[in-house]
Write a structure and sequence with these properties.
Elements lengths: L1 E4 L12 H6 L12 E4 L4 E5 L12 H12 L6 H20 L2 E3 L5 H11 L6 E5 L9 E5 L12 E6 L9 H9 L8 E6 L4 E6 L4 H7 L2 E2 L2 E2 L1 E5 L11 E8 L4 H9 L3 H9 L3 E3 L2 E2 L12 E4 L3 E10 L5 E8 L17 E5 L12 E5 L3
Antiparallel strand pairs: 1-3, 2-3, 4-6, 5-6, 7-9, 7-12, 8-9, 10-11, 13-18, 14-15, 14-16, 16-17, 17-18, 19-20
Length: 367
């Protein structure tokens, strides 16, 4: 492969340049072949030999973009992630070529991470990631030429979903299911920040804010009301974490995860083979998968585990730092009390708030 540095121009006008007419014949082979001309955004024209003269006036830009994208994506493992990143790369190239700004929907953490790594290798492409707050997991990307993307676009809106969740607490899945039940697809939603008894704050694409306000009236069995709030009004408390050290003979997934989640290695191997374990948000079914610093291991029903520093011991083993979120002893929004069997509950006691204000009167007998 050879390359020529050429001035910026439209693809269709490349063949008319006198310099190309003088230089290209020396690149031809003796056998009939075809030419593929690719324009990279760093103003480099890539010519793959063998070529033929009749192809000089043709520049197959879609094919050029496809070929370049495949090279950029080489080494990515997960097939679904590759397809998502490929679409984002092509979106970025189109935005840069047209000198406009385009936006993705909310991306999952692995797609976001891989997309940013790939896009940083493209010249004349600027990227801005926004999720609504600094610790956001699901973010949107704005991509475009640096001359066009000069500020952070307003592409994330926040909604407050409120209701009385004191006696009927709802989980992240309850809020997500209720919103998706209105007909919205997942990639239009960002993070959901639980607010205990008050409800939740939800990040969404701005164009669907009004629809959610009018369509969402219940989460679980709790009636709710929705309103728009500024991003600065989001209430988010970074999770408290604790770390522990574990010395392992290898960095196999089943060994490290069993230590982090405090389950037997046999049980962890079973969870892995059943597809209940994800590494960096990608399902892994092989117990011998190697773990490295920065990996996030998720187990269905058990939470997440982040891999911290990994150091070798003098005996050839591995000292692994395992970081887990600290759960509160009591769940916010849940009031759980154990009463004897001889206690009956009667709703409708009178209080200062008026008759039947959701207060419960206890009728019980002793002995």
């Amino acid at each position: 492969m050879c390359s020529l540095r050429v001035p910026t121009m439209a693809a269709s006008g490349l063949a008319s340049l006198p310099i190309l007419r003088r230089v290209l014949p020396s690149l031809l082979s003796s056998r009939p072949t075809h030419a593929v001309k690719e324009i990279f955004y760093d103003r480099t024209l890539i010519l793959r030999t063998p070529l033929r003269s009749s192809a000089f006036g043709i520049c197959d830009l879609p094919q050029a973009i496809k070929g370049d994208t495949d090279v950029l994506l080489k080494g990515l493992g997960d097939k679904n992630t590759i397809e998502d990143v490929k679409r984002i790369v092509e979106l970025a190239k189109r935005a840069s070529l047209r000198r406009e700004v385009l936006h993705t929907d909310f991306l999952t953490p692995p797609v976001l991470k891989e997309s940013m790594l790939v896009l940083e290798r493209l010249a004349d492409v600027k990227i801005v990631a926004q999720g609504g707050y600094p610790e956001a997991e699901r973010c949107r990307l704005s991509v475009g030429h640096p001359d066009a993307l000069t500020s952070d676009p307003d592409i994330v809106s926040a909604l407050s979903i409120s209701g009385n969740f004191s006696f009927q607490p709802c989980s992240h899945g309850d809020f997500l299911g209720a919103i998706l039940g209105t007909g919205i697809v997942r990639n239009k939603l960002g993070d959901i920040l639980l607010q205990g008894e008050k409800g939740a704050h939800v990040l969404v694409v701005p164009e669907l804010s009004d629809f959610i306000l009018s369509a969402l009236d219940k989460v679980g069995n709790v009636s709710v009301s929705c309103k728009k709030i500024p991003l600065l009004a989001l209430e988010y408390e970074p999770p408290r974490t604790k770390s522990l050290k574990s010395v392992e003979a290898s960095l196999r997934l089943d060994a490290v995860a069993s230590a982090g989640f405090k389950v037997s290695r046999t049980k962890m191997a079973s969870l892995i083979s059943n597809g209940d374990v994800r590494v960096n948000w990608t399902t892994v079914t092989k117990s011998n998968t190697t773990i490295k610093t920065g990996d996030i291991i998720s187990v269905s029903g058990e939470g997440r585990l982040k891999i911290g520093e990994i150091n070798s011991t003098r005996k050839g083993k591995f000292a692994v730092e395992l970081i887990r979120k600290v759960e509160d002893d009591t769940q916010i929004g849940t009031r759980s009390v154990i009463f004897p069997d001889n206690i009956n509950f009667v709703k409708g006691a009178t209080t200062d708030a008026g008759p039947g204000a959701g207060v419960w009167k206890l009728n019980f007998s002793c002995g």
